[in-house]
Amino acid sequence: MDKIITTGKFKDKPPFRDSSSAVVPAKVMCHNCSKLKIFLGALAFSFFAKGFSGSYMKSMSSQIERRFEISSSIFGIIDGSFELGNLMVMVLVSYLGPRVHRPKVIAVGCLIMSLGAFLSVMPQFLMGRYNYERIAVTVDNSSSSVSACSPAPSVGHSVSDATETPSTMKNSGCEKTSNSYLWLFVLMGNLLRGIGEAPVMPLGVSYIDDFSKEENSAFYIGLVRSSGMFGPTLGFLLGSFCASLWVDIGVVDIDAININPKDTRWVGAWWLGLLICGAVNFIASLPFFFLPYSLTKEGEDENPKKISHLPVQGDHCKTDPPAQPQLKFSEAVKDFLPTLKKLFGNPVFLVYVFLTILQYNSLVGLITYETKFMEQQFNVSVAKAIFLVGVILLPITILGMFLGGYLIKKFKLHVTGMAKFACISFIVAYLLNLLYFMCNCEVLQLAGLTVPYSGFKQLSSPKNSFMASCNADCSCKMDQWDPVCGDNGITYMTACFAGCKSSTGMGKNMVFHNCSCVEGHEHGHGNASAVLGQCQRESCTKAFPYFLALQTACAFILALGGTPTYMIMFRSVSPDLKSFAVGIETLGGRILGGLPAPIYFGALIDETCLKWGTKSCGGSGSCRIYDTKAFRNVYLGLIAGLRAGCCVLYMVLCVLIMRRFKRDDKEITDIKNAEETINKESVTVNKKEVLPGAKTSEESEETYM
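User: That's the sequence. What structure does it adopt?
Assistant: Structure tokens below.
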């Protein structure tokens, strides 16, 4: 039998009455409040999940390039497919936001993200084992010494790496040419992730703003977004761990691999983290299936008219969900263009969209190639670069976003105050950003390319002339890359180009001796040697801590103004357009920022490549070494140029907001003054009409006024 619960811990709470004078217990209001908190927690975890998989995917940029032997521009297309997926559904999802069951749509989106992550893993199980470039050397009769420089290299046999067997070396992977296009699986998986992520931001944020207090909205959104930033942090940490593992882990003998994670041919277990990302996105979808279409507005529990009476069956409190509006597709299409015109007729929102586009361009380009920049510029491994981004930069960003939302709540900043705060913080960060150019790093001294064989002086017009008199009799192949570092501090493309005649040791500990090109004029005719790997650049290593500290300061200041900037959009559009505005803003950032940025960033970075790898079946693979100076100028120059445009738009935005909202504030102030005047007049009239015994009450009322 249905009954009203008025016992237990709610026995002291007075019951509410709805419009029909039916009693509604306080438990109903607590139940609605708890559901809002559950939604906040679920949305924060979904932000975590999408950030987790997104940051992991970006951290694997170098690994995916090397595994599929593709250029940075091709990876830019793969990365941009995520934004394309957003583009396909973002406008529809955001426009239909208030008209659909938002929690369930978010749940379906998380499931699609999970499917996309699992699809991206498929190439690992379709491709053969990874075979990295390795120079062919000859073995003498004693089998204790190998020679890289041989007049007749065909007489000897190739030393295979741990992933090859004699039966598989004949065709060198040319049997399955379709492997060259398996990166399309990764592209399609990324596309699905973009489609699945589209409803999370606009529907989730608008849901919070609709059912929370206005003064709490900014704090809740800042809390959810900052909580979601733990996803990118752990995503980069997972990326660092997987990048340090060999791609075919568990299948090959790791001790037999002759290269280490610092080598540009190293490929980590990129696929392993995607399996984890898919599982996390699947878990994130589950809570949303059990959340209602709408909730009672937070803080309206004192108003009985906002509460609908519902019987309670047993010990469970149930509320009838509000009737969902029947949406006709023809009406939605008919209202779309007028709604869009109304939104873009708002100059504040229009400038905000342009600002978002430029910010997306700089941010996406920075994040996508940050680890590659650190690797090439400061001579650190990809795994270490990913780790540092995850444990230093992203936590600082989380702190800045959280603090930005807190400051809005603490000081109750109006939209004009938010605009000023965001503008000042961005300009300060931009000025610090210009100091990046002071972190100089020398170009790798690569014999025949950046320095001549005979000395250390860099060529004014370097040409790909790797051959010299010291290695003319070695019959070296130009399409090989297996670098060695000579005693003279110069890197050679292979031990063959260094003119090495013998060696000692095996695997990673192999040392080449009698290298004719290493001897040079300074070394006389001694037993010049070379070791596997590129030469270390000490000046680059010393400059890295300063670069990291500067980048940390910039990230914090930018994040500090991030939440105030985001709230400007909500305060500058009408309430019924908030969900649509979020979708349009995100769409503009995706299509004109997130989609093209990794492609043109990657294409310009490719122009700074000094030596391309070679695929097993011919053709260019991924880049092995870059001109670090040109790389720095292109990468940092693009970011600085885009952020300069952001500074201008921030100032324009501040001017527009101050003009618009100061006028509104003046009107509100005039209304308040008029109301106060009316109230004082009414009090004066009441004083004349009070009875003689009401003197104390009269005086207290006058004091309050």
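The longest strand covers residues 620-626.
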